[in-house]
TrEMBL record:
Residues 348-459 are annotated as: Lon-protease-like. This is DNA repair protein RadA. The gene is radA. The middle region has homology to RecA with ATPase motifs including the RadA KNRFG motif, while the C-terminus is homologous to Lon protease. InterPro entries: AAA+_ATPase, DNA_repair_RadA, P-loop_NTPase, RecA_ATP-bd, Ribosomal_Su5_D2-typ_SF, Ribsml_uS5_D2-typ_fold_subgr, Rubredoxin_2. SUPFAM superfamilies: P-loop containing nucleoside triphosphate hydrolases, Ribosomal protein S5 domain 2-like. GO terms for cellular component: cytosol. Transmembrane segments: none annotated. PANTHER family: DNA REPAIR PROTEIN RADA (PTHR32472), DNA REPAIR PROTEIN RADA-LIKE PROTEIN (PTHR32472:SF10). One of its GO terms (biological process) is recombinational repair.
Length: 459
C-alpha cells in the first residue's frame, strides 16, 4: 500500500516543511504555516488520451491567430493582438492606470461588435461606470460585475458568453473549498489555474490584473507567471504622464516590445511617436545638450541628454544624475579627465535626461561625453546631430546593437548628422550624413571645425 504523509505549507510564500513551525523559514512570516492535504507517494499510472497526438504539419495554425484589440500600442506589445483562449497578466503599481487602460481596451473590443465582461473585485460596478463615463468608455457590449467569488465569476461567464474577460484583480478572487487567505499563494494559484482552464476550454481571452510588491515584482507565487501566456508590466512615473507597457513574457510574439501611453484627465491615450516627448526644442543651439537614440526593447526612441558643469568652492563638489546611470556618468568624467585633460574635480556636475526618459544602456556613453565636453568648453553641439556609441575606459568608441534602426529613427525625426562607432557593418539608411569614429578626439572633430576642441580657459 502506498504511504501517505502530511505536508505543511506556508500560505504566504508556498514554502513546504516536513513539520509544523511557528515561523516560515523561507519568508519569515509568523503563523502562516498550515497543514495541507496528504500526498500519496506512488507512481502515476498511464491514462488513455482523449485525443490522439497529431503531426505538427497537420495542426491548424489559424486557431492561434491574434485578434487586434483596436489600440495599436497595446496590440504591438501583445504581438498583433490577443489570441483567443490566451491568458494575459498585466501587473503594475497602484494608481499607474491599469484599470483605465483596461476600460479603454474593453471599449475598443466592444466597438468591434464583440462582447466583453469586466469583473472587478476592488470596486463596485457604479464606481467603474463613473470612471468609464469620465474616460468615454461606455458601450452597450461591455458587461460589469462586482464579484470576489470565483464560482460566481464563472457563472457570469456562462450567462454573458463574452469573448474577452477582464479580472481586476486576481488577488481579490476567492476559490471556495481551497485553503488559504485571500490573496495568498494557495488562493492565487487555484484562481489562476481555474481561469487558465476556462480560457483553454472555452476560447475566451482573459486579462488578469496583478499587484506588484515593493520591489516591483508580481505579487504571488512565481508559478503565476508560468501559468499565463503573456506577462506585461505597466510602468510610469508619478511625476510624468508617460506610461509604458513592457512585455516580459509572450508565447505569441516578441517579449521585448514596448507600448507608449499618456495619462490625461480624460483617460489614457496611446502615443505612437514618443520621441517628441524626450526632446526639447531650443531657439538656438545651447551648450551641454546632445541628442541620442536609445533602444527600449525593440523600439528606438530619440532622447536628449543635458550636462552642466559649474565651478565650486566646496571640498567635495556635488554630482547629481537624473535618468542616467550614475556609474556611467562617473566613468565618462574619468575618461574625459584622463584622455582630454579636462579637469572636473573642482566642479559641480549635473547630468539629466529630458522629459523623464530613463537611459541605462552603454550606447548613451558618447552622448554623455559630448554633453560634458560641450558644457566644459561652453560650445554647443548642433541640435541636428545625434550621437550613438559606447565609450571604453581606454578612450575607444565601441559598436552597439541596432545601429541601423537607431539611425533610421533619427532620420525620420529630421536629424541630419549621426555620429556612430567605426566598424559598424549594418546597412545604414540613406539621406543622413554618417560619421564613423573610433576615438574620442575623432568624435570631437566630427562635431564641427573648432567647436569643442578649442579650450577657452584652463581647468
Amino acid at each position: 500500500m502506498a504511504k501517505t504523509k502530511a505536508i505543511y505549507r506556508c500560505t504566504a510564500c508556498g514554502h513546504q516543511v516536513a513539520k509544523w513551525v511557528g515561523r516560515c523559514p523561507d519568508c519569515g512570516e509568523w503563523g502562516s504555516v498550515e497543514e495541507g492535504a496528504p500526498v500519496v507517494a506512488a507512481g502515476a499510472a498511464s491514462v488513455a488520451p482523449r485525443s490522439p497526438a497529431r503531426r505538427i504539419t497537420e495542426v491548424d495554425a489559424g486557431t492561434a491567430s491574434a485578434t487586434p484589440i483596436g489600440i495599436a500600442e497595446f496590440d504591438r506589445v501583445l504581438g498583433r493582438g490577443i489570441v483567443p483562449g490566451s491568458v494575459v497578466l498585466l501587473a503594475g503599481e497602484p494608481g499607474v492606470g491599469k484599470s483605465t487602460l483596461l476600460l479603454e481596451t474593453v471599449k475598443h473590443w466592444a466597438a468591434g461588435g464583440r462582447v466583453a465582461l469586466y469583473v472587478t473585485g476592488e470596486e463596485s460596478a457604479g464606481q467603474v461606470r463613473l470612471r468609464a463615463e469620465r474616460t468615454d468608455a461606455v458601450h452597450e457590449n461591455v458587461f460589469l460585475a462586482s464579484e470576489t467569488d470565483l464560482g460566481t465569476v464563472l457563472g457570469h461567464v456562462d450567462e454573458v458568453r463574452p469573448t474577452l474577460l477582464i479580472v481586476d484583480s486576481v488577488q481579490t478572487l476567492v476559490a471556495s473549498g481551497v485553503d488559504g487567505v485571500t490573496g495568498g499563494v494557495t488562493q492565487i494559484r487555484a484562481v489562476t489555474t481555474a481561469l487558465v482552464s476556462l480560457a483553454k476550454t472555452s476560447g475566451v481571452s482573459v486579462i488578469l490584473v496583478g499587484h506588484v510588491t515593493k520591489d516591483g515584482n508580481v505579487a504571488g507565487p512565481r508559478s503565476l507567471e508560468h501559468l499565463v501566456d503573456v506577462v506585461l508590466s505597466f510602468e510610469g512615473d508619478r511625476h510624468s504622464s508617460l506610461r509604458m507597457v513592457r512585455g516580459i513574457k509572450n508565447r505569441f510574439g516578441p517579449s521585448d516590445e514596448v507600448g507608449c501611453f499618456e495619462q490625461r484627465s480624460d483617460g489614457i491615450h496611446q502615443v505612437s511617436d514618443p520621441s517628441g516627448i524626450f526632446v526639447h526644442e531650443h531657439p538656438s543651439d545651447v551648450p551641454g545638450s546632445v541628442a541620442l537614440v536609445a533602444m527600449d526593447g525593440r523600439r528606438a526612441m530619440v532622447g536628449q541628454i543635458q550636462a552642466l558643469l559649474n565651478n565650486s568652492e566646496m571640498t567635495s563638489p556635488r554630482r547629481a544624475v537624473s535618468g542616467l546611470d550614475p556609474a556611467r556618468v562617473a566613468m565618462m568624467l574619468a575618461v574625459t579627465e584622463k584622455h582630454l585633460e579636462v579637469k572636473t574635480g573642482k566642479q559641480e556636475v549635473y547630468a539629466s535626461t529630458v522629459g523623464g526618459m530613463k537611459v541605462t544602456e552603454p550606447a548613451a556613453d558618447l552622448a554623455i561625453f559630448l554633453a560634458i565636453m560641450s558644457s566644459a568648453k561652453n560650445k554647443p553641439v548642433p541640435s541636428t546631430t545625434v550621437a550613438i556609441g559606447e565609450v571604453g575606459l581606454a578612450g575607444e568608441i565601441r559598436r552597439v546593437s541596432s545601429t541601423a534602426r537607431r539611425v533610421a529613427e533619427a532620420k525620420r525625426l529630421g536629424f541630419r548628422h549621426a555620429i556612430i562607432p567605426a566598424g559598424t557593418e549594418e546597412e545604414l539608411p540613406k539621406g543622413i550624413r554618417i560619421t564613423k569614429v573610433s576615438q574620442l578626439d575623432e568624435a570631437l572633430a566630427a562635431i564641427g571645425p573648432r567647436r569643442l576642441e578649442a579650450v577657452d580657459a584652463p581647468f
